[in-house]
Amino acid sequence: MKQDSSAGLKDQFNIGICGMGTVGGGTFTLLQDNQTEITRRLGRSLKVSHVASRRQNPLYDTEGVRFSTDVFAVADDPEVDILVEVLGGTEPALSLIMRAIENGKHVVTANKALIAVHGNAIFAAAKRKGVTVAYESAVAGGIPIIKALREGLAANSIQWLAGIINGTGNFILTEMAEKGRSFAEVLKEAQALGYAEADPTFDVEGIDAAHKLTILASNAFGISLQFDKVYTEGISKVTTEDVNYAAELGYRIKHLGITRMTDKGIEMRVHPTLISDRRLIANVNGVMNAVVVKGDSVGSTLYYGAGAGAKATASSVVADLIDIVRSCGSEARSNSGNVPSLAFDSLRSDIPILKIEDIECEFYLRLSVQDKIGVMAQISRLLTDHGINIEALIQKEPDASQGGDAFVPIVIVTGRVLESQMNKAIAAMEALEQVVEKITRIRIEQFDGEGN
After folding, report:
1. Catalytic one of 47, 105, 112, 212
2. Range of the domain at 210
3. Would the pTM count as exceeding 0.90?
4. Residue 340: inside a domain
5. Is 212 a catalytic site residue?
Protein backbone atom coordinates (compact mmCIF):
# COMPACT_ATOMS: atom_id res chain seq x y z
CA MET A 1 0.00 0.00 0.00
CA LYS A 2 1.69 3.17 -1.20
CA GLN A 3 2.02 6.17 1.10
CA ASP A 4 2.59 9.88 0.43
CA SER A 5 5.33 10.42 2.99
CA SER A 6 5.07 14.21 2.91
CA ALA A 7 1.44 14.22 3.98
CA GLY A 8 1.22 10.84 5.70
CA LEU A 9 -1.62 9.87 3.34
CA LYS A 10 -2.12 6.97 0.96
CA ASP A 11 -1.58 7.79 -2.68
CA GLN A 12 -3.18 4.51 -3.78
CA PHE A 13 -6.32 2.75 -2.56
CA ASN A 14 -6.68 -0.94 -3.28
CA ILE A 15 -10.05 -2.22 -4.42
CA GLY A 16 -11.36 -5.78 -4.05
CA ILE A 17 -14.25 -6.80 -6.30
CA CYS A 18 -16.48 -9.72 -5.32
CA GLY A 19 -18.41 -10.91 -8.34
CA MET A 20 -17.22 -10.52 -11.92
CA GLY A 21 -20.56 -10.66 -13.71
CA THR A 22 -22.17 -7.73 -15.54
CA VAL A 23 -21.70 -5.10 -12.83
CA GLY A 24 -18.43 -6.41 -11.39
CA GLY A 25 -16.90 -6.69 -14.83
CA GLY A 26 -18.20 -3.25 -15.77
CA THR A 27 -16.67 -1.77 -12.62
CA PHE A 28 -13.32 -3.45 -13.32
CA THR A 29 -13.32 -2.13 -16.90
CA LEU A 30 -14.33 1.41 -15.91
CA LEU A 31 -11.58 1.61 -13.29
CA GLN A 32 -9.05 0.50 -15.93
CA ASP A 33 -10.33 2.68 -18.78
CA ASN A 34 -10.79 5.89 -16.77
CA GLN A 35 -7.80 5.48 -14.47
CA THR A 36 -6.17 8.74 -15.55
CA GLU A 37 -9.36 10.77 -15.14
CA ILE A 38 -10.09 9.24 -11.73
CA THR A 39 -6.54 9.96 -10.51
CA ARG A 40 -6.87 13.58 -11.66
CA ARG A 41 -10.09 13.94 -9.68
CA LEU A 42 -8.69 12.34 -6.52
CA GLY A 43 -5.02 13.19 -6.58
CA ARG A 44 -4.59 9.49 -5.75
CA SER A 45 -5.19 6.28 -7.66
CA LEU A 46 -7.66 3.43 -7.35
CA LYS A 47 -6.19 0.02 -8.15
CA VAL A 48 -8.06 -3.29 -8.37
CA SER A 49 -5.79 -5.56 -6.37
CA HIS A 50 -8.03 -8.59 -5.74
CA VAL A 51 -11.08 -10.08 -7.50
CA ALA A 52 -13.18 -13.07 -6.49
CA SER A 53 -15.56 -15.08 -8.61
CA ARG A 54 -16.63 -18.69 -9.08
CA ARG A 55 -14.44 -18.79 -12.17
CA GLN A 56 -12.17 -16.43 -14.06
CA ASN A 57 -13.95 -14.42 -16.74
CA PRO A 58 -11.89 -14.40 -19.96
CA LEU A 59 -13.51 -11.10 -20.98
CA TYR A 60 -11.39 -9.20 -18.44
CA ASP A 61 -7.60 -8.96 -18.33
CA THR A 62 -6.83 -9.50 -14.66
CA GLU A 63 -3.12 -10.09 -15.09
CA GLY A 64 -1.30 -8.85 -12.00
CA VAL A 65 -4.52 -8.93 -9.95
CA ARG A 66 -4.95 -11.54 -7.24
CA PHE A 67 -7.78 -13.95 -8.07
CA SER A 68 -9.81 -16.03 -5.59
CA THR A 69 -12.80 -18.32 -5.85
CA ASP A 70 -13.57 -17.56 -2.20
CA VAL A 71 -15.13 -14.11 -1.78
CA PHE A 72 -14.20 -14.07 1.91
CA ALA A 73 -10.54 -14.06 0.89
CA VAL A 74 -11.14 -10.51 -0.36
CA ALA A 75 -12.73 -9.45 2.93
CA ASP A 76 -9.74 -10.90 4.80
CA ASP A 77 -7.08 -9.48 2.47
CA PRO A 78 -5.11 -6.88 4.50
CA GLU A 79 -4.11 -5.09 1.27
CA VAL A 80 -7.72 -4.35 0.26
CA ASP A 81 -9.01 -0.95 1.45
CA ILE A 82 -12.48 -1.01 -0.11
CA LEU A 83 -14.56 -4.09 -0.93
CA VAL A 84 -17.06 -3.96 -3.81
CA GLU A 85 -19.93 -6.45 -3.39
CA VAL A 86 -21.83 -7.16 -6.61
CA LEU A 87 -22.89 -10.75 -5.93
CA GLY A 88 -26.60 -10.08 -5.44
CA GLY A 89 -28.87 -12.12 -3.18
CA THR A 90 -28.70 -12.40 0.59
CA GLU A 91 -25.97 -14.96 1.19
CA PRO A 92 -23.05 -14.98 1.06
CA ALA A 93 -23.39 -11.23 0.38
CA LEU A 94 -24.57 -10.33 3.91
CA SER A 95 -21.88 -12.36 5.67
CA LEU A 96 -19.28 -11.01 3.26
CA ILE A 97 -20.16 -7.37 3.95
CA MET A 98 -20.27 -7.94 7.69
CA ARG A 99 -16.84 -9.64 7.55
CA ALA A 100 -15.40 -6.73 5.56
CA ILE A 101 -16.82 -4.22 8.05
CA GLU A 102 -15.44 -6.20 10.97
CA ASN A 103 -12.04 -6.11 9.27
CA GLY A 104 -12.24 -2.31 9.03
CA LYS A 105 -12.87 -2.11 5.29
CA HIS A 106 -15.17 0.29 3.52
CA VAL A 107 -17.83 -1.34 1.34
CA VAL A 108 -19.57 -0.42 -1.89
CA THR A 109 -22.60 -2.53 -2.82
CA ALA A 110 -25.12 -2.64 -5.65
CA ASN A 111 -27.35 -5.03 -3.71
CA LYS A 112 -30.71 -3.28 -3.27
CA ALA A 113 -32.46 -6.30 -1.74
CA LEU A 114 -29.74 -6.65 0.88
CA ILE A 115 -29.82 -2.96 1.80
CA ALA A 116 -33.63 -2.82 1.88
CA VAL A 117 -33.97 -5.86 4.16
CA HIS A 118 -30.72 -5.88 6.19
CA GLY A 119 -29.46 -2.31 5.78
CA ASN A 120 -30.30 -1.19 9.31
CA ALA A 121 -27.99 -3.84 10.79
CA ILE A 122 -25.31 -3.25 8.15
CA PHE A 123 -25.19 0.50 8.76
CA ALA A 124 -25.14 0.04 12.53
CA ALA A 125 -22.13 -2.28 12.21
CA ALA A 126 -20.38 0.16 9.88
CA LYS A 127 -20.93 3.03 12.31
CA ARG A 128 -19.44 1.02 15.17
CA LYS A 129 -16.33 0.27 13.11
CA GLY A 130 -16.01 3.78 11.65
CA VAL A 131 -16.28 2.68 8.02
CA THR A 132 -18.57 3.60 5.13
CA VAL A 133 -21.08 1.39 3.32
CA ALA A 134 -22.05 3.13 0.07
CA TYR A 135 -24.88 1.96 -2.17
CA GLU A 136 -25.67 4.53 -4.89
CA SER A 137 -25.69 1.79 -7.53
CA ALA A 138 -28.42 -0.13 -5.68
CA VAL A 139 -31.13 2.26 -6.92
CA ALA A 140 -31.73 3.37 -10.51
CA GLY A 141 -28.40 2.25 -11.93
CA GLY A 142 -26.42 5.24 -13.18
CA ILE A 143 -28.84 7.92 -11.91
CA PRO A 144 -27.30 9.62 -8.84
CA ILE A 145 -30.60 9.75 -6.98
CA ILE A 146 -29.22 8.78 -3.56
CA LYS A 147 -26.62 11.54 -3.77
CA ALA A 148 -29.34 13.99 -4.84
CA LEU A 149 -31.49 13.12 -1.81
CA ARG A 150 -28.65 13.01 0.70
CA GLU A 151 -26.71 16.04 -0.51
CA GLY A 152 -28.20 18.09 -3.35
CA LEU A 153 -31.64 18.34 -1.73
CA ALA A 154 -30.46 18.35 1.90
CA ALA A 155 -31.90 21.83 2.53
CA ASN A 156 -35.39 20.65 1.59
CA SER A 157 -38.17 18.95 3.44
CA ILE A 158 -39.10 16.28 0.90
CA GLN A 159 -42.85 16.13 0.30
CA TRP A 160 -43.04 13.19 -2.10
CA LEU A 161 -41.18 11.25 -4.71
CA ALA A 162 -42.32 8.93 -7.47
CA GLY A 163 -40.19 6.81 -9.71
CA ILE A 164 -40.05 4.40 -12.61
CA ILE A 165 -37.36 2.32 -10.94
CA ASN A 166 -37.60 -0.99 -12.77
CA GLY A 167 -36.62 -0.96 -16.43
CA THR A 168 -38.11 -4.36 -17.24
CA GLY A 169 -41.61 -3.33 -16.20
CA ASN A 170 -41.28 -0.03 -18.05
CA PHE A 171 -40.16 -1.81 -21.22
CA ILE A 172 -43.20 -4.11 -21.08
CA LEU A 173 -45.71 -1.29 -20.52
CA THR A 174 -44.08 0.81 -23.26
CA GLU A 175 -44.36 -2.01 -25.80
CA MET A 176 -47.97 -2.64 -24.80
CA ALA A 177 -48.80 1.06 -25.26
CA GLU A 178 -46.90 1.71 -28.48
CA LYS A 179 -47.49 -1.56 -30.32
CA GLY A 180 -50.68 -2.95 -28.81
CA ARG A 181 -48.96 -6.15 -27.69
CA SER A 182 -50.07 -8.35 -24.80
CA PHE A 183 -48.26 -8.56 -21.48
CA ALA A 184 -47.32 -12.22 -22.01
CA GLU A 185 -45.92 -11.57 -25.49
CA VAL A 186 -43.74 -8.64 -24.41
CA LEU A 187 -42.53 -10.47 -21.30
CA LYS A 188 -41.27 -13.31 -23.48
CA GLU A 189 -39.34 -10.80 -25.62
CA ALA A 190 -37.94 -9.07 -22.51
CA GLN A 191 -36.59 -12.42 -21.35
CA ALA A 192 -35.05 -13.09 -24.78
CA LEU A 193 -33.38 -9.66 -24.73
CA GLY A 194 -31.99 -10.23 -21.23
CA TYR A 195 -34.12 -7.48 -19.62
CA ALA A 196 -36.07 -10.04 -17.57
CA GLU A 197 -34.88 -13.14 -15.75
CA ALA A 198 -36.17 -16.65 -16.48
CA ASP A 199 -38.20 -16.14 -13.30
CA PRO A 200 -39.39 -12.53 -13.76
CA THR A 201 -41.32 -12.31 -10.48
CA PHE A 202 -39.09 -9.68 -8.82
CA ASP A 203 -39.47 -7.36 -11.81
CA VAL A 204 -43.07 -7.77 -12.93
CA GLU A 205 -44.61 -8.20 -9.48
CA GLY A 206 -42.92 -5.08 -8.08
CA ILE A 207 -40.55 -6.64 -5.53
CA ASP A 208 -37.44 -5.14 -7.12
CA ALA A 209 -39.08 -1.70 -7.19
CA ALA A 210 -40.21 -2.12 -3.57
CA HIS A 211 -36.61 -2.76 -2.48
CA LYS A 212 -35.52 0.44 -4.20
CA LEU A 213 -38.46 2.47 -2.88
CA THR A 214 -37.61 1.37 0.66
CA ILE A 215 -34.16 2.90 0.26
CA LEU A 216 -35.46 6.08 -1.36
CA ALA A 217 -38.08 6.64 1.36
CA SER A 218 -35.49 6.29 4.12
CA ASN A 219 -33.23 8.86 2.46
CA ALA A 220 -36.14 11.21 1.73
CA PHE A 221 -37.74 11.21 5.19
CA GLY A 222 -35.07 10.05 7.64
CA ILE A 223 -36.74 6.81 8.70
CA SER A 224 -35.30 3.34 9.16
CA LEU A 225 -35.50 0.87 6.28
CA GLN A 226 -38.93 -0.83 6.39
CA PHE A 227 -39.29 -3.04 3.32
CA ASP A 228 -41.98 -5.18 4.94
CA LYS A 229 -44.33 -2.17 5.05
CA VAL A 230 -44.25 -1.33 1.33
CA TYR A 231 -47.53 -2.08 -0.47
CA THR A 232 -46.52 -3.99 -3.59
CA GLU A 233 -48.56 -4.75 -6.70
CA GLY A 234 -47.25 -5.89 -10.07
CA ILE A 235 -48.19 -5.29 -13.70
CA SER A 236 -49.07 -8.85 -14.75
CA LYS A 237 -52.82 -8.06 -14.68
CA VAL A 238 -52.57 -4.93 -16.84
CA THR A 239 -54.20 -5.61 -20.23
CA THR A 240 -53.95 -3.96 -23.64
CA GLU A 241 -57.55 -2.83 -23.09
CA ASP A 242 -56.48 -0.94 -19.96
CA VAL A 243 -53.57 0.66 -21.81
CA ASN A 244 -55.87 1.74 -24.67
CA TYR A 245 -58.62 3.08 -22.40
CA ALA A 246 -56.01 5.02 -20.42
CA ALA A 247 -54.74 6.60 -23.64
CA GLU A 248 -58.31 7.52 -24.63
CA LEU A 249 -58.67 9.33 -21.31
CA GLY A 250 -55.34 11.17 -21.73
CA TYR A 251 -53.28 8.93 -19.44
CA ARG A 252 -50.42 6.47 -19.64
CA ILE A 253 -49.92 3.50 -17.35
CA LYS A 254 -46.56 3.33 -15.55
CA HIS A 255 -45.35 1.01 -12.81
CA LEU A 256 -44.40 3.47 -10.09
CA GLY A 257 -42.82 3.48 -6.70
CA ILE A 258 -44.43 6.29 -4.70
CA THR A 259 -43.62 7.61 -1.25
CA ARG A 260 -45.24 10.66 0.30
CA MET A 261 -45.21 12.43 3.66
CA THR A 262 -48.74 13.17 4.87
CA ASP A 263 -50.30 14.44 8.09
CA LYS A 264 -51.25 10.83 8.94
CA GLY A 265 -47.91 9.21 8.13
CA ILE A 266 -45.76 8.06 5.23
CA GLU A 267 -47.06 6.32 2.11
CA MET A 268 -44.83 3.64 0.57
CA ARG A 269 -46.40 1.85 -2.38
CA VAL A 270 -45.52 0.21 -5.69
CA HIS A 271 -48.28 -0.36 -8.24
CA PRO A 272 -49.45 0.36 -11.80
CA THR A 273 -50.48 4.00 -12.01
CA LEU A 274 -52.33 6.17 -14.51
CA ILE A 275 -50.47 9.46 -15.10
CA SER A 276 -51.49 12.32 -17.37
CA ASP A 277 -49.67 11.99 -20.70
CA ARG A 278 -48.57 15.63 -20.29
CA ARG A 279 -46.32 14.78 -17.37
CA LEU A 280 -42.63 14.29 -18.02
CA ILE A 281 -42.45 10.99 -16.18
CA ALA A 282 -45.33 9.60 -18.27
CA ASN A 283 -43.09 9.93 -21.32
CA VAL A 284 -40.17 7.91 -19.94
CA ASN A 285 -40.16 4.82 -22.14
CA GLY A 286 -38.32 1.57 -22.76
CA VAL A 287 -35.89 0.37 -20.12
CA MET A 288 -35.11 3.86 -18.86
CA ASN A 289 -35.64 4.93 -15.23
CA ALA A 290 -36.77 8.27 -13.82
CA VAL A 291 -37.50 9.69 -10.39
CA VAL A 292 -39.41 12.89 -9.60
CA VAL A 293 -38.71 14.46 -6.19
CA LYS A 294 -40.81 17.29 -4.73
CA GLY A 295 -39.05 19.45 -2.14
CA ASP A 296 -40.63 22.30 -0.23
CA SER A 297 -38.03 24.80 -1.42
CA VAL A 298 -36.77 23.61 -4.79
CA GLY A 299 -40.12 22.30 -6.05
CA SER A 300 -40.12 19.30 -8.38
CA THR A 301 -36.91 17.92 -9.87
CA LEU A 302 -36.60 15.04 -12.34
CA TYR A 303 -33.74 12.54 -12.50
CA TYR A 304 -33.60 10.43 -15.66
CA GLY A 305 -31.23 7.87 -17.12
CA ALA A 306 -30.23 4.26 -17.53
CA GLY A 307 -31.43 2.21 -14.57
CA ALA A 308 -29.35 -0.88 -15.24
CA GLY A 309 -26.54 -2.26 -17.38
CA ALA A 310 -22.81 -2.74 -16.92
CA LYS A 311 -21.66 0.79 -17.71
CA ALA A 312 -24.48 2.71 -16.00
CA THR A 313 -24.32 0.75 -12.76
CA ALA A 314 -20.51 0.71 -12.76
CA SER A 315 -20.61 4.50 -13.05
CA SER A 316 -22.39 4.67 -9.68
CA VAL A 317 -20.12 2.04 -8.10
CA VAL A 318 -17.00 3.98 -9.06
CA ALA A 319 -18.58 7.27 -7.95
CA ASP A 320 -19.06 5.69 -4.51
CA LEU A 321 -15.43 4.57 -4.48
CA ILE A 322 -14.32 8.11 -5.28
CA ASP A 323 -16.52 9.54 -2.50
CA ILE A 324 -15.09 7.11 0.05
CA VAL A 325 -11.50 7.93 -0.88
CA ARG A 326 -12.28 11.64 -0.66
CA SER A 327 -13.71 11.13 2.83
CA CYS A 328 -10.40 9.52 3.82
CA GLY A 329 -8.49 12.53 2.58
CA SER A 330 -7.13 13.73 5.88
CA GLU A 331 -6.96 12.75 9.51
CA ALA A 332 -9.33 15.59 10.31
CA ARG A 333 -12.07 13.92 8.30
CA SER A 334 -13.77 10.82 9.61
CA ASN A 335 -13.25 7.54 7.82
CA SER A 336 -16.99 7.01 8.05
CA GLY A 337 -17.54 9.93 5.68
CA ASN A 338 -19.39 13.20 6.06
CA VAL A 339 -22.89 12.06 5.09
CA PRO A 340 -24.95 9.67 7.27
CA SER A 341 -25.82 6.34 5.66
CA LEU A 342 -29.52 7.21 5.35
CA ALA A 343 -29.06 10.98 4.90
CA PHE A 344 -30.10 11.98 8.46
CA ASP A 345 -27.92 12.02 11.56
CA SER A 346 -30.84 10.69 13.59
CA LEU A 347 -33.73 8.65 12.22
CA ARG A 348 -37.34 9.25 13.24
CA SER A 349 -39.28 6.34 14.71
CA ASP A 350 -42.50 8.23 15.49
CA ILE A 351 -43.89 8.36 11.94
CA PRO A 352 -46.24 5.50 11.01
CA ILE A 353 -46.14 3.86 7.59
CA LEU A 354 -49.67 3.99 6.21
CA LYS A 355 -51.49 0.89 5.06
CA ILE A 356 -52.85 1.00 1.53
CA GLU A 357 -56.41 1.18 2.91
CA ASP A 358 -55.58 4.54 4.51
CA ILE A 359 -54.26 6.14 1.31
CA GLU A 360 -56.37 8.50 -0.77
CA CYS A 361 -56.21 8.83 -4.55
CA GLU A 362 -58.30 8.78 -7.73
CA PHE A 363 -59.15 5.49 -9.42
CA TYR A 364 -59.60 3.97 -12.86
CA LEU A 365 -62.22 1.20 -12.82
CA ARG A 366 -62.97 -1.19 -15.69
CA LEU A 367 -66.16 -3.26 -15.49
CA SER A 368 -67.79 -5.78 -17.77
CA VAL A 369 -71.56 -5.73 -17.32
CA GLN A 370 -74.61 -7.29 -18.93
CA ASP A 371 -76.28 -5.16 -21.60
CA LYS A 372 -79.42 -4.41 -19.62
CA ILE A 373 -81.33 -1.23 -18.90
CA GLY A 374 -80.56 0.39 -15.55
CA VAL A 375 -77.19 -1.23 -14.88
CA MET A 376 -75.26 2.03 -15.15
CA ALA A 377 -77.79 3.72 -12.87
CA GLN A 378 -77.24 1.01 -10.23
CA ILE A 379 -73.45 1.40 -10.45
CA SER A 380 -73.68 5.20 -10.21
CA ARG A 381 -75.94 4.91 -7.17
CA LEU A 382 -73.57 2.52 -5.40
CA LEU A 383 -70.62 4.84 -6.00
CA THR A 384 -72.63 7.81 -4.71
CA ASP A 385 -73.69 5.83 -1.63
CA HIS A 386 -69.98 5.28 -0.85
CA GLY A 387 -69.14 8.97 -1.32
CA ILE A 388 -67.38 8.49 -4.67
CA ASN A 389 -67.72 10.98 -7.54
CA ILE A 390 -67.54 9.95 -11.21
CA GLU A 391 -65.14 12.28 -13.04
CA ALA A 392 -65.14 10.56 -16.46
CA LEU A 393 -66.95 7.67 -18.11
CA ILE A 394 -66.41 5.51 -21.19
CA GLN A 395 -69.15 3.10 -22.26
CA LYS A 396 -68.53 1.04 -25.38
CA GLU A 397 -70.88 -0.86 -27.65
CA PRO A 398 -72.04 -4.28 -26.40
CA ASP A 399 -69.65 -7.17 -27.09
CA ALA A 400 -71.59 -10.21 -28.34
CA SER A 401 -68.62 -11.87 -30.00
CA GLN A 402 -68.71 -14.85 -27.63
CA GLY A 403 -72.38 -15.58 -28.27
CA GLY A 404 -75.13 -15.54 -25.66
CA ASP A 405 -75.70 -12.40 -23.60
CA ALA A 406 -73.91 -9.28 -24.77
CA PHE A 407 -71.48 -7.60 -22.34
CA VAL A 408 -70.78 -3.89 -22.15
CA PRO A 409 -67.30 -2.65 -21.16
CA ILE A 410 -67.50 0.39 -18.89
CA VAL A 411 -64.57 2.50 -17.71
CA ILE A 412 -64.98 4.96 -14.85
CA VAL A 413 -62.55 7.56 -13.50
CA THR A 414 -63.39 8.56 -9.94
CA GLY A 415 -62.60 11.51 -7.74
CA ARG A 416 -60.24 11.21 -4.78
CA VAL A 417 -61.34 8.69 -2.19
CA LEU A 418 -59.85 6.54 0.54
CA GLU A 419 -58.81 3.09 -0.64
CA SER A 420 -60.92 1.53 2.13
CA GLN A 421 -64.02 3.26 0.75
CA MET A 422 -63.18 2.12 -2.77
CA ASN A 423 -62.80 -1.47 -1.52
CA LYS A 424 -66.33 -1.36 -0.12
CA ALA A 425 -67.74 0.17 -3.31
CA ILE A 426 -66.04 -2.44 -5.51
CA ALA A 427 -67.34 -5.27 -3.32
CA ALA A 428 -70.87 -3.85 -3.62
CA MET A 429 -70.62 -3.51 -7.41
CA GLU A 430 -69.19 -7.01 -7.84
CA ALA A 431 -72.14 -8.35 -5.86
CA LEU A 432 -74.49 -7.12 -8.60
CA GLU A 433 -75.74 -9.92 -10.81
CA GLN A 434 -75.14 -7.79 -13.90
CA VAL A 435 -71.40 -7.34 -13.18
CA VAL A 436 -69.94 -10.44 -14.82
CA GLU A 437 -66.20 -10.21 -13.99
CA LYS A 438 -63.95 -8.94 -11.23
CA ILE A 439 -63.51 -5.19 -11.52
CA THR A 440 -60.11 -3.92 -12.62
CA ARG A 441 -58.81 -1.12 -10.41
CA ILE A 442 -55.75 1.06 -11.20
CA ARG A 443 -54.80 4.06 -9.09
CA ILE A 444 -54.39 7.52 -10.63
CA GLU A 445 -51.85 10.15 -9.57
CA GLN A 446 -51.82 13.75 -10.78
CA PHE A 447 -48.45 14.81 -9.26
CA ASP A 448 -49.39 18.46 -9.08
CA GLY A 449 -46.33 20.63 -9.43
CA GLU A 450 -44.25 18.19 -11.48
CA GLY A 451 -44.56 20.35 -14.57
CA ASN A 452 -45.50 19.59 -18.15
Report:
1. 212
2. 145-306
3. yes
4. no
5. yes
